[in-house]
Structures are given as structure tokens and as C-alpha cells.
Amino acid sequence: MNKSLLLSCFLCTSLSHISAQTTPAARGRVLDALTREPLVAATVALQGQSGGAYTDSLGQFQLDMPGTVSVRLLGYNTWSGRLQSTETEQTILLEPAENALGTVVVSATMKEVTKDASPIPVEIYTPRFFQKNATPSIFEALTVVNGVRPQLNCNICSTGDIHINGMEGPYTMVTIDGMPIVSGLSTVYGLSGIPNGLVERIEVVKGPAGTLYGSEAVGGMVNIITKNALTAPRLFVDVFGTNIGELNFDGAVAARLGAAHTLLGINYFKFNNRLDINGDNFTDVTLQDRISVFNKWNFERRNNRVASFAVRYVYEDRFGGELDWTPEWRGSDSIYGESIYTNRIEFLGKYQLPAARRRIMLDASWNLHDQNSVYGKTVYFGKQQVAFGQLTTDLPFGKHHDALLGAALRYTLYDDNTPATATPDGIRNAPSQTWLPGVFLQDEIELDARNRLLLGLRYDYNSVHGNILTPRFSWKWARNAQNILRLTAGSGYRVANIFTEDHAALTGAREVVIREDLQPERSWNGNLNYVCKFYPRRAGFIGLDASLFYTYFSNQIVPDFTSDPNKIIYDNLDGHAISSGLSLNLDFNFVNGLKVIAGATAMDVYRMENGARLPQLFAPPLSGTWTISYPIPKARLTFDYTGQLNSPMHLPVVPNDPRPEQSPWFSIHNIQVTWKPGRPSNKSAPDLEIYAGVKNVFGFYPREEIILRAFDPFDKYVQVDNPNGFTFDPTYNYAPVQRQRVLVGVRWKLL
């Protein structure tokens, strides 16, 4: 017994000694900074030492010695700091990278794949990226995305659209959760009023996506992915105001009701300050009063099958015009004003059928857009309904094939008070009805470990224009995870409606002339993309994303502002149009916390007509964007510097126009500082941010006479002292007429 007791004591002593020797000098846990979820397989490296560790399934790690470490995980910004020698577990929070390379994308292939794995180049932008330059709408937020230019088309009503690689806004398709919600009549308003608290990420595809998405995806697409109600924060509030009177509120609340999870988002924006810094007696900034309500439901189902439903309602009262205009002058020829009332409702849903062996998805949406507007004395009433349904399924055949088969149906009913919906004799109203059924097939083929080939073909039957085929081809070569080359080619088409997409046809005093029945536009596109990633010890991460692009247009519909100062003439181009260029994006994440995202685009956009080479309007040959961020952890401060640079671009002038034919070089600079009073480790605790900044720091704005004959908006005195026959024209625009603005806001999130 004594021997047993001695043996027991010896073992206990030995085990205690061993335990003491193996007790780690430093312990920690790595979590996602936004979700507080553990991160697996993150690298924890001791700087200047060969030792390190990887996080386990709980995000935990142990080190044999304390010291300065760098924590790195693909898709996240590198963290650097010192770990103390303590038995207490230290928490490290990794911020998702704004262009997270490991983020799941769906726009390119209609399937959930990572950005690196996608055979089609896709750019990803998270809400955190856009929060570095707070804006009241996604339209304005996109100004800091390289190669994407939000273009204001009217100096009075401030309507605009999205230009990708210099191509006009109607060539860009905007979708919400992959469904064509923003189209036709809503093209110029669709990116306003989407609550920022509901946005999970924004995916940008440059080049035709018509094989999967059909008409309008000619030059590219912007896909807004909304949050899943199952994983969204319980509460999100973001409110800011500016010194000129802008007020923006974004709020979202998530709740669980049995097997259903709901997410309710509200956006409210108001600006009611009549500014006129250029002295032309017209508002420089459009007055707006807008509210948007978005409610999304996600349902828990067996085997994680998808089921979601959402509804959005938008109301907006928008005005621009002479400073002394009041609603009683609406539609008169005494005081000029452009007043637009918009009511819009959207329904959209996704449902995965309970198939045992394959994934079958049903997508459906319906929206109604009702617009009551006046442009001076021109009254425009427009109403549009769009119904959309789509069924997709995987086709499992062959070990190396990943095929997708889909069928879609889109119905558009459009009615207005213009000649666009009148009978040929102009006597009766004849609303436009368009049926667009289509089928598509896509196959992604794994040739070997490095090479993947994607082939796609879509057939659509337009009830007005007949049969349309759109093919797509893509080849991806991955030398390794750090070097990826993609070659993509494809075709796109678009059926245009002048009045729904181009409000320049309504504003001003010019006569609109449509010379013939407009035929669908066609495009052929080629894109060569190269992605290279580096992980130098002292820099954390360096990423390069370069693309060569080329697009050829036939049957392009172009507005002619120059042939006749009294007319805007629309016609199919008797010739062709070209958009070509080079786009370069650079991403630097340094171990000291400094982050730089910069991009530049050089492009040549023009059309050939009757042997003459005519440049594209509002397409700067050179442009650039940047976002620079630097945190000071001890002070809990983050500094953000964002901006854009544009070279001279051609503008719509008339013969003998006193205004310059080209804009000057100009740049817009914004600074913002964000203070976090504290970042609690408790997942359920609120996350508070207070931010302030200055927009357009150097106060650039167009100083030219941007509105021609602003003193005579109804052309009552065209014959008086006007030898050139100029008429009222507000289409000359290249930058907002706004000086510096001071911004203050608060952002609060409860996970």
C-alpha cells in the first residue's frame, strides 16, 4: 500500500511538472469582427520567429512564447499586435476585407462560388467599404468604384444612371438578389431608397451577362445582395446629416417568429434647401423627400433549403427648378419646375423545391412603378408593371461537369401619355405589352487542376422583335492560388424604350424626334482578366486585378443633341460603336493597419457613323478612384480618405455653343474620421460608431453656364437677340454643383 501511495505521488508530481511545462505562454481566440463567429485555420505567426500556430474549430490558438504576432486569413484584413504572457484568453477580431477574395459570389454563374473560383471576374463591395464615404443612396456610393461612373443626366431633376466602362446607363443591368427589379421606368431611380442596413454586398460584373440574365445586361450588371434574415444583426441604425440640410436615416431590425426570421429595413432621406451657388436662379441640388420600406422573410427548412420572400415600397417627392417655384405652378409655363412623384412597390421571392437529388430553384418577382411628373409644362404620366419568373436546376452529368439549366419568363406592361404608347394615328392609347420567354444552358467544365472552361447559350423570344441568341464563353487558368487568368467573350442585346430610360427626352424645351422603329441593340464583348496576390512579410497583403476589355456595338441607339439645337434625335446608329480600354485595381493591406484600394481606367469609347469618328459623351478617357484608411487602435479612431479623378470628357454642345466642348480635369476628395467608443468582446453588446467628415474638400463644382438660356426656360424669347437660335437646355453636366459639405453621423449595431 505504501508502494502504491508512493507511486501515486510520483505520478501526480510528474504530471504537474509536465503540465507546468506545457502551459502556453499566450492564448487567444480569433473571431470575425462583424459576426463574432470563430475563424478556423487562421495563421498566427510570431514576427521575427519561426514559430506560430493555426486556429482550431473554435477559433482558438496557443503560443509557446509571447510577442508581436500577425494574424492572417484569406478574405480578411491582416491583424498585427502584441500578445501578453497571461493565462487569460485574448480575443482578436479580424475585419473582412472590402474586396474579400474568399467572399461567395453568385452574379457570374447563378451559383454560390468564391470569387477566386468563379470563371467570370466579379468585383465585390461590402457595406464596410461604402461606409468610408457615407452617402444616402447606392447610386452615390458607387462613385468610388473604379470603372463605374454614376452619371447625372439632368441638371434640374438630378436623375442619373450607372455607366460601366464608358457605356451608357441603359446598358447596365441592376438586379436585387439576381432578379431584374430595376429596369425600364425605374432605371434612373432604382438605386435610390434601398436601405443600406439590408445590403449584404454588391457584386459588379463588367461585360455582357445576357446569357444568364437576358436583356439589358449588355455592358455589365450591378447585383445587390440583401442580408439573410437568419443571420442579420438584431438591430442596425445609421443616421447622418450635413450642414446644407441633408438628413438620411437607415434602420433595420431582425426578429425570429418560430421557423420564420424577418428583417425590416427603413430608409428616409430629406433635403429641402434651395441652393444656387452659380447664380442661374435654378436649384443646384434637387430637393427630395423619400421613404423606402423593405421587409424580408427567411424560413428554416429541412436540409437548409432556401425559402425567402421580400416586399419593398418606395415613395419619393423630387423637385428641381427655379428658386421661386411652388407646387401651384406645377405644369404651367410661368415658373419652370420639374416635379416628380414616384410610387413603387416590389415583391420578390426564392424557393428551393424539395427535390431529393438536385437543387431546383424558383425565383419570382413583380413590381409596379407609378410616376406622376412634370418637366416645365410637359406632363409625363408613366406606369410600368414587370412580372418575372425563373426556374433553374443543376444538371449532374459527368464527373468534371457542373451544368445549369434554366427557363425564364418576363412580362412588361408599360403605359404613358407620350406617343410611345399611342396608336399610329395618335388617336387611341395602346399600352405596350412585351412577353420575353427564354431558356439557357451553362456548363462549367473542369479540364484539369488548373484549367476550367465555361460555355453558355441563351435563347429568348421577344414578342416584338422575335428570336435572340446570346452565347458566352470563359476560360480560367489558375497557375496557383495567387495567379489567376481569365478570358471571357460573349454577346448581349437590349430592347430600348426612350422615354422610360432617358429623361433628357423630357426635360428642357427640345422636340424629341424618333426617326424609325428602333431595333434591338447588339453587342460583342471580350475581356482578359489577370489577378495576382502577394503576402509579403512587411506588407500583409498586396493584390492586383487588371482587365483588358473590348465591346463592339451594332444597332446602337444614340441621342443626337448637336445636329439641331431645337431637337433631340433618336435613331439606330448607321455604323458601329466601340468601347475598349484597360482597368487596373490595386489593393494594399499593410501590417500597421494602413489600407489602400486604388483603381484606374483608361478607355476609348466612340462610334463610327458615315465614316466619321465621334466620341462618346460623358466618357472620360482616364479616370481613377481611391480609398485610403488608417486606424489608430489606441484612440479607437479610423481615418478614411476617398476620391475620384476624371480627365476631360466630351459634353453635349450645340453649334456655336459658348460652353466648352470638353470638361476640365477635375477631382473630388472626401475625408472622414470614425470613432468607436469601445468594441466589447460580448457578442450581444451594441457596437457604436460616431463619424464625421468633409465631402468635396476642395470645393470643386462646374463654373460654366451649365444650363443654356436659364433665363428663358419656356423659350418665349428665342427670337429676341438670339442669332444662333439657342434654346433652353439643361443636359450639359459632368459634376454635381455642390461645394464642401460637412457630415456628422452615428452608426449603431446590435448583433
Protein architecture, described:
- The strands form seven sheets. The protein has a 22-stranded antiparallel β-barrel. A five-stranded mixed sheet has the order 10-15-16-13-14. Strands 3-2-5-6 form a four-stranded antiparallel sheet, with no helix packed on it.
- Strand 22 (about 335-350) and strand 23 form a beta hairpin.
- It folds into two domains: about 25-95, Sandwich (Immunoglobulin-like); about 105-750, Maltoporin, Chain A (Beta Barrel), CATH 2.40.170.
- The longest helix has 21 residues, at about 1-20.
- Helices cover about 5% and strands about 50% of the residues.
- The N and C termini lie far apart (about 60 Å).
- The radius of gyration is 28 Å and the shape is globular.
- The chain is mostly beta strands and about 750 residues long.
- Residues about 5-25 have low confidence and may be disordered.
Can you tag this structure with a few keywords?
751 residues; mainly beta; Immunoglobulin-like; five-stranded mixed β-sheet; 5 helices
Which segments are poorly predicted (pLDDT under 50) over 5 or more consecutive residues? 3-23
Protein structure class: mainly beta
Total count of strands = 42
Count of distinct structural domains: 2
Topology overview:
Elements: H1 2-22, E1 26-32, E2 43-46, E3 52-54, E4 60-63, E5 67-72, E6 79-83, E7 90-94, E8 104-105, E9 113-114, E10 123-125, H2 127-130, H3 138-141, E11 148-152, E12 160-164, E13 172-176, E14 179-182, E15 199-206, H4 210-213, E16 220-226, E17 235-242, E18 247-257, E19 260-271, E20 287-299, E21 307-321, E22 337-352, E23 360-375, E24 378-395, E25 401-416, E26 432-446, E27 451-462, E28 466-480, E29 483-494, H5 498-501, E30 511-514, E31 521-534, E32 541-554, E33 557-560, E34 567-572, E35 575-589, E36 595-609, E37 612-615, E38 622-632, E39 637-646, E40 666-675, E41 686-695, E42 741-750
Parallel strand pairs: 1-7, 13-16, 30-34
Antiparallel strand pairs: 1-4, 2-3, 2-5, 5-6, 8-9, 10-15, 11-12, 13-14, 15-16, 17-18, 17-42, 18-19, 19-20, 20-21, 21-22, 22-23, 23-24, 24-25, 25-26, 26-27, 27-28, 28-29, 29-31, 31-32, 32-35, 33-34, 35-36, 36-37, 36-38, 38-39, 39-40, 40-41, 41-42
